[in-house]
Specification:
Radius of gyration: 25 Å
Shape: flat
Helix content: 10-25%
Strand content: 25-35%
Distance between the termini: 49 Å
Number of strands: 22
Oligomer: single chain
Structural class: alpha+beta
């Protein structure tokens, strides 16, 4: 599986045909298709885009592989890779058979293939073309943690088989006919919808857990008496209504637009918020389907019925677990079969690794043991490994570390140690100096006042949108006191977003550093006076529990 192996080859020469792309994502809108021409090529890709019959390679066309900001405004805060799929059934395939194949194969296979490998959410929707008047029978929103996670999955054999399985249900789009089959990658959109294009857009682009809250699906069709100007004006009005609904509890909406239909997935903070808001729908958009998506556990998710959509509930694994899984699936079988004295498909780095990695290598040294320190790329992430092998006893030990030197996992196998197995996972999340997030509030009146005022204005927001301090202006760290810069540096990690803000709390002008680690959903906050005095700190998340001041 050369595509999968390439994930572990960080040292491919630049310009090589196998070299990974380092280009930044495009910031332009998807390429337009003239109104009288077939739909954009990106629409012919499958939800699991690999080398399947639904892939651009099989269609002889390029594809949009990464979300691109469209229009003006701040870039989205989320790194999620959001894919919007529509499927037109094969000619002559009854809806009951479409339902059976979805329920028995495609829906459960989706989380089997993507679960634990970057898939964050999966929201399939089954429709009856005879009732809606649309040729689409299935829509699905498929959310990955990042473009890198998706690309890593796309190179696997399981991914290729899954992509090909779509042809058991859905038609392959003829290249000369406008059609509604395939996937669009959603882009953040602030302004009007690009005309005469097929595209998927996010109205917020904020960090959203699509498995949480309340999801709703809606589909609209264009009537025969609606001209282009009225059609796109109605779509723009609907999008503006969704943007306005963010203050009423809408977290985000993914909207797929083409010349004769619109489909919308919405994620609300709660069912009550959704029912209270009800943004108006322009009369020029003819609603043909609406469904409040039910949450269903992964084991029971195969129960789609016409007019019904589900939010498949499954537990995405942690970053450390994903790295171990990817490492184990490729390299460990080779190491178990014949533990080599060097780690295959990895670069020796010896003196350039973090101190913790070098210390682990030192611990592995012993009589007859060959030890090496390596760099690898696993799931799109640079990691380090200390690997020791005793050839006489056919015994080996492995220590896996993050780029910062955080220990992800370790294993020993062979000889008297028995088969390969991972030791208990070490601490998850980015490495922070011990005691950095500590109880720094002295109980002084100004610190107590700052905490109280912050709780009034911001705590609700950071619970709902934990990636940013909503309503607080960011500041350039270089203009803040040195203490603030040091705190931000200590919070920073390769998976952590850190921002600095200036706030008015009561009568005080204060600064804040806010750090958010997405994979473990952990956050930390430190408040400072304008003079650099630390006033208070807080931390919360999966491991730390709810928001609480230290």
């Amino acid at each position: 599986m050369p595509d999968e192996i390439s994930r572990y080859r960080p040292a491919i020469p630049a310009g090589s045909p196998n070299a990974p792309s380092t280009a930044a994502p495009s910031v332009s809108a998807p390429v337009a298709s003239p109104p009288t021409q077939p739909a954009a090529a990106a629409e012919t890709t499958s939800p699991f885009q690999g080398t399947s019959s639904f892939s651009p390679a099989a269609q002889g066309a390029g594809a949009v592989l990464a979300p691109a900001p469209v229009g003006e405004g701040a870039a989205p805060t989320s790194k999620a890779h959001v894919r919007f799929w529509r499927g037109v059934p094969k000619e002559g395939l009854p809806l009951d058979e479409v339902k059976r194949r979805l329920n028995e194969h495609l829906v459960p296979d989706t989380t089997t293939v993507g679960g634990g490998r970057g898939l964050d959410a999966y929201l399939p929707m089954l429709m009856d073309p005879g009732q809606t008047g649309l040729d689409v029978a299935e829509a699905a929103l498929i959310v990955y943690q990042s473009q890198e996670e998706y690309d890593a999955l796309a190179g696997t054999a399981e991914f290729e088989v899954y992509g090909k399985s779509h042809s058991d249900i859905f038609t392959r789009p003829p290249p000369t006919r406008y059609n509604h089959n395939g996937t669009q990658v959603a882009s953040f959109l602030k302004g009007p919808v690009p005309r005469d294009k097929v595209g998927a857009y996010l109205v917020s682009g904020a960090q959203v857990n699509w498995q949480d809250g309340q999801n709703r699906f809606r589909a609209f069709a264009r009537g025969p008496d609606i001209d282009d100007a009225r059609w796109y004006a109605a779509v723009d009005t609907m999008l503006d209504g969704l943007r306005g609904a963010r203050t009423g509890g809408l977290n985000d909406a993914a909207v797929l637009v083409d010349k004769d239909q619109v489909m919308v997935y919405e994620n609300w903070a709660s069912l009550a918020k959704m029912e209270q808001a009800q943004p108006p729908t322009p009369t020029d958009l003819k609603k043909v389907q609406e469904s409040v998506l039910q949450r269903e556990a992964r084991a029971d998710a195969s129960s789609l019925e016409p007019g019904k959509g589900v939010s498949v509930q499954f537990q995405p694994t942690t970053r450390g677990d994903r790295l171990k899984d990817a490492f184990e699936r490729k390299l460990i079988p080779d190491l178990q079969a014949a533990p080599p004295p060097v780690l295959p498909m990895a670069s020796r780095v010896e003196a350039d690794a973090p101190a913790s990695v070098l210390a682990a290598a030192k611990q592995l040294e012993g009589t007859g043991v060959k030890v090496g320190v390596y760099s690898l790329k696993v799931c799109g992430e640079d990691v380090f490994a200390a690997y020791g092998h005793c050839e006489a006893q056919q015994q080996a030990s492995l220590r896996l570390f993050s780029k910062l030197g955080e220990r992800i996992g370790s294993a020993t196998w062979g000889g008297s140690e028995g088969p390969f197995s991972w030791d208990k996972l070490a601490r998850k999340g980015p490495q922070r100096p011990p005691g950095e997030i500590a109880n720094t509030s002295t109980g002084a009146p100004e610190a107590v006042a700052a905490k109280t005022e912050f709780a009034k204005k911001f705590v609700t927001n950071v619970r709902v949108v934990p990636t940013e301090l909503v309503g607080a202006p960011t500041v350039d760290l270089a203009t803040t006191p040195a203490q603030l810069q040091d705190a931000a540096a200590s919070q920073k990690g390769p998976w952590t977003t850190v921002n600095a803000y200036s706030l008015k709390l009561g009568e005080q002008d204060v600064y804040a550093t806010f750090a958010y680690e997405r994979d473990d959903e952990e956050a930390s906050l430190i408040l400072f006076s304008t003079a650099g005095e630390k006033l208070a700190s807080a931390s919360w998340g999966k491991q730390k529990g709810p928001f609480a001041w230290d």
